[in-house]
Amino acid sequence: MFRTVALALAACLFAGCGRSGFQIAALDGLLGGESDDLPGGDGTGGDGAGGDGADGGDGDNEVDPGPALFAAAYAGNELWMSYVANDGGDYFSATNQPCTAPTTYRSCVHAGEVRKLTLLSVPSCAGLSASDTLNAFDWVCADTSGGATFYSKLKRGRGLRDLIAPSGTSFASNSVTVSGFGVIPESSGVWFANPIVPLPPNAGTGVETLTASGTIYVETTSRDTLGYHVAADRIGIVTLGSAVLNISDSIVANCNDATGGTVGASDRCLVTMGSVRGAWIEADLDGDRGDYVHQVILAVGASLLRVNRTRAINAESPVLLDGVVASRITSTQLAGDGVTATSVIASDGNLLQDVLLARSHFEIDGDDNVFDHVNVSGGNVGIDITNGAARNVFGRVVSVAHALHGVRSADSNNNRNVFAFVTATNTGNSAVVLTGGTNNTMHSIVAVNSSMHGLLTASPGNTFSHMASAHNGGFSFYLDVGSDNMRFAGQLQTAGSCSVSGSIIAPALDGACAGQNLSSTHLTDVQSGLDVSNAFVGTLTTDDPSNTSDANGGVGAFPSPPHLFDFTRFASAWRAWGLNDSTPFPAAINRGRWSSGAGRIWDWALVPASPLYNHSGHPVALNDPFVDGAPCPSQVHGDRRIADILGGELVAAAGGDDDGICEPGETCSGNVFLAAAMEVIDDNRGDDDYLCEANEACIYAPNIGAYQGSGDYLQHQCAFQDGIVAGVRMYGFPVSGE
Q1: With 0-12 CB in 10 A as exposed, 13-18 as middle and 19+ as buried, what is 353?
Q2: Average pLDDT over every residue of 490-502
Q3: Dihedrals φ, ψ of 23, to 5°?
Q4: Which residue, 137, 378, 427, 651, has most beta carbons within 10 Å?
Q5: This prediction's pTM
Q6: 1: pLDDT confidence band, cut at 50, 70 and 90?
Q7: Cα–Cα distance measured from residue 211 to residue 537, given in angstroms and rounded to the nearest whole number
Q8: Distances 594 to 403, 495, 577 between C-alpha atoms, Å
Q9: pLDDT per residue over 380-397, tens digit each?
């Protein structure tokens, strides 16, 4: 259960952060500890009204807290799918103003989920914690003039499926339990008043248009459909239990991919919408009709869209976002047709968090999107950045078993993107390709066992730090013509040779992958001979308890037809299907997309014996242990930092040529961040670029690559030691090796 911060005990820790106690307490509620479960759990919808979240103690020592007040935190915006402007110091202190023109996923507060419980006779939060019966919310306590006050925020991985009664006809009753006091009577009852109605059946009547704003449409039984068009703001679509909406075999064109509407339909979609606000999709959706629909979910011009705890499978594009802003795809499983991309096209300011994508890839043609904890496998290119996409962030990404690349950025205007904590392996071409764009940063990247190069780059002015590349068919690092004025920083682990044609801002590499002019402030360590043979958990030889298709971790042949196969449900977030062969990893036979022959589930978590595990401070020496309450490991001291050149040349500064590219002798700008930590995303505090900078909340990153551990990091904190980077609140995963 989430434990709230006892402000009176923790005030000394907050003093250096320049924020009030209330704001820091609220911040902790936003962090959202996580589990190692795959997005959406086992992929079934849940029964509705799940969880037994109240812990309440044993009841023997509970006392009466006196009178309490329980209400919506934002009066007049208490309905689900209601939003207010995020104009306060944190999620719980907005001024209750309309959110009229959101530009990013942080522009608005989902006011509908925020409830407030005030214990009028209890003056302090010290020692208090809270939970709710449905186990749907985290609870944050703040000392206010009215008494100790708890605020709710939806737990990561929870949603409407946990709040609606199993019958699908109403919200379930809920209540709050406070430690030492038991259930607070004033909190007991139904908290939300949105109309809940059955989703209209339409297997033989054509696409159904949904027009009742504020209404949640619920389905409790699996059935066929000819598609749904969301035509009003704040409409929800939810399936409960094992119910699945399957596209009908008789479907015809029902959606227009240029408008999201039904007029001039040329594509086949299961759920479609145009420029509506606040839609909420939480459903199991299957787009198979023999040759797949075009899109399971199509949104054009929408804002504040939430796709949560959804399984959308069997389509050319499971989700297509075009011109969508300020939206979120969370705790969701997607599966495509093995070729076509799931696209975020010309869509800006969106968050994709805890998302698994199988048999497809992400195509990003927009700006300011954040991908947090994403697993993508079995496509052409895992992460494909195109057409001048800028300022996007990709953090804790597993991109494996693709026909071509794990990551590719090839457009000359793909600038200032951040790739942090990425594992790209078993690819049919180069693992990571950066041949277009400048001022990009790649940090903590594992690029192993690709058919070509580990890293191929041919664009100038980029930063590469904490890189590991080995067992590739080509070079570990192929720095082609045009890859000028790069910066290598932190540590590099390699095996094999390098090709260096471009110029590198010293320190540098040579053709033998040896470091030249190593620097305590930039490239500190270069280690050859990297061997990842036993670095990962690897292929499964026992059943995955969540997957419905494997037998002892594999199958003897590629499924025919594939739409009945389970590509998305796993017991661990680090798993994906790939090629199966008795040849031990890493080997050429392991590379590429699984589309024929035997297949097997691979687990890309690290094992403690891995050379990538607990080595974020040095390629050979192990990191210091992380001990709760003790000083943080020395590897994450405030002086163990990296400076990138993401900001490029400071134009008009003395000595430069004002071309924006950081070159020797010029004054440049960029991020200064900790080498062994990653920023907490969506906590209303930092800049959400995944790089741990001053005055941000961060998670200790002991390893190289995507896997950094699992569990609820909120329960584990060390005392950060300030240096050049200062004011950091440092958490750690309780499990850091599998």
Answers
A1: buried
A2: 88
A3: -65, -40
A4: 427
A5: 0.92
A6: very low
A7: 49
A8: 8, 26, 8
A9: 999 999 999 999 999 999
Q: What is the rounded distance in angstroms from the CA atom of residue 397 to the CA atom of residue 392?
A: 13
What residues pair up with 345 in beta bridges, in sequence order? 322, 365
Mention every residue, 6+ apart, whose C-beta is less than 8 A from residue 58: none
Structural tokens at position 439? 């001022």
Give me 708's structure tokens: 């950094």
Say how far apart CA 610 and CA 585 lie, in whole Å.
13
Classify residue 57 by its DSSP letter: T
CA dihedral in degrees (105, 688, 417, 384; nearest 10)? -60
Strand partners, 456: 433, 478
Could you list the beta-strand ranges (E) of 259-417: 269-273, 280-282, 284-286, 293-300, 306-308, 311-313, 315-322, 328-335, 342-345, 351-358, 362-365, 370-377, 381-385, 393-400, 405-409
Contact between 134 and 113 under an 8 Å Cβ cutoff? The reply is no
pLDDT grade for 55, boundaries at 50, 70 and 90: very low
Residue 49 CA to residue 238 CA, distance in Å, equals: 13
How many angstroms separate the CA atoms of 264 and 275, rounded? 16
How far is residue 562's CA from residue 478's CA, in Å, rounded to a whole number? 37
pLDDT in tens, 544-556: 999 999 999 999 9
Give the integer Cα–Cα distance in Å for 630 and 679: 20
Determine the Cα angle at 326 with ends 239 and 696, to 5°: 110
What does DSSP assign to residue 551?
B
**Residue 472, amino acid:** N
- Closest-CA residue to 251 (of 211, 215, 288, 279): 288
Give the containing element (helix H, strand E) for 7: helix 7-14
Beta bridge partners of 531: none
Structure tokens at 701: 């990153």
Residue 410: CB atoms within 10 A of its CB come to 18
Angle formed at CA 544 by CA 541 and CA 545, multiple of 5 degrees:
140
Rounded alpha-carbon distances, angstroms, from residue 686 to 221, 352, 415: 43, 17, 21
Query: Checking DSSP bridges between strand 228-230 and strand 269-273, what pairing results, if any?
Result: parallel
Q: Rounded CA gap, 453 and 445, in Å?
A: 14
26 phi, psi to nearest 5 deg: -65, -35
Closest CA to 455 of 392, 502, 412, 389: 502
Distances in Å between the Cα of 671 and the Cα atoms of 299, 372, 645 are: 34, 19, 7
User: Which run of H or of E encompasses 160?
Assistant: helix 160-163
3-state secondary structure of 638: coil
Q: Identify which of 299, 358, 363, 361 has the alpha carbon closest to the alpha carbon of residue 43.
A: 358
Instruction: Answer positive or negative: Cα dihedral of 589, 591, 596, 597.
Output: positive
228, 215 in Cβ contact below 8 A? no
